Amino acid sequence: MKNKVYNLFEICNPKQWKTISIDNLDKNGKYPVYGANGIIGYYSEYNHEKPTLCITCRGATSGELNISTSYSYINGNTMALDDLDETKVDINFLYYFLKKRGFKDIISGSAQPQITRIALKKINIPLYTLNFQKKVASDLKKAEDIITFYKNQLLNLTELVKSLFTTMFGDIKTNDKNWEIKKLKELVEIKSFIINENLNFIWLLNLEDIEPNTGKLIKKREVSFKNIPSSTISFNENYVLYSKLRPYLNKVFLPDEKGFGTSELVPLLPKKNIHKIFLTEYLRNDKIVDFLSQKVSGAKMPRVIMKDFQDLNLIFPPIELQNKFAERIENIEKLKFEIEKSIETAQNLYDSLISKYFDN
Predict the structure, then answer these.
(1) What is the mean pLDDT of the chain?
(2) How far, in Å, CA of 227 to CA of 190, rounded?
(3) Tens digits of per-residue pLDDT, 171-209?
(4) What is the CATH number of domain 2-128?
(5) CATH architecture of the region 180-316
(6) Mean pLDDT score, 244-262
(7) Are 279 and 240 in contact (CB under 8 A)?
(8) 73 within 8 A of 40, measured Cβ to Cβ
(9) Are 133 and 93 in contact (CB under 8 A)?
(10) DSSP secondary structure, 216-243, as one string
(11) End-to-end Cα spacing for the chain
């Protein structure tokens, strides 16, 4: 079904335009400006009338793709694929092809990654008929939209948790519901416990195994008990794990079984009348995160000052209210789990379509 292999330069004219600095952006401008991370502001002029495929060509995000809107300005740190031959290639098909292909073999420079115009000459594109290209792009867009829909649902549920916390417990900064205040060290024990050494394998939790935005476990590392480093903490499902080291500072994780973790994780064992889910969401609260982010030391590896962390003030509502909150959060987590499975299904569909259309 493929007609011919074209070099990228046979179907478009890659070009970098004059750069508009951040200082020269116009908040009253009507034309969006596309930079390394999509729209970065607005300007009084445009340099592209039609939607144009852009490749970020400078910085850490080199290789990121965007399709600009009509009447927009494409900045100089982005390579605009101008003069696209629409008789040969569909812009959306080209977007998905390049997204699948990637630019690892084209990006140069370690301190300052970049993609040069000359390097783009390495890209060859096997093209289907134009009608079939549109079908491919449409199929992939539908799968991508499903993934985006479910991810937005997850974000909404995350915001629901924050809203529920505020509704039930008020503003923790002003304590507008006049709860009793206690220090963290009064409500938790910071300790570890001994795991039976007869176990052949346990799992070791490293910081990179935790998803930074949610505090959820990404993967397990199963290791021999004999190979556990001495500088580790141990925990079980009753603990709350807090990360004291940047870039994972203030990330909180609820383990569902026992294991070991690296020493950058602080194991918190809630005492009586403090629910671990309430404690978790308290530590995830934006006001607490902002406060603890200021309580760090160390230039090379900034980490929270443990005395400040242990002296952290916590509101202390009745355990009955904490339990009611925890029950609602557990129901929300069940919904999240179902949505995550839907995302996985949609992602598998997307991946199978990518493989079907581009791996032949």
Answers:
(1) 86
(2) 24
(3) 998 999 999 999 999 999 986 554 444 444 444 455 556
(4) 3.90.220.20
(5) Alpha-Beta Complex (3.90)
(6) 76
(7) yes
(8) no
(9) yes
(10) -B----EEEGGG--SSEEEE-TT-EEEE
(11) 11
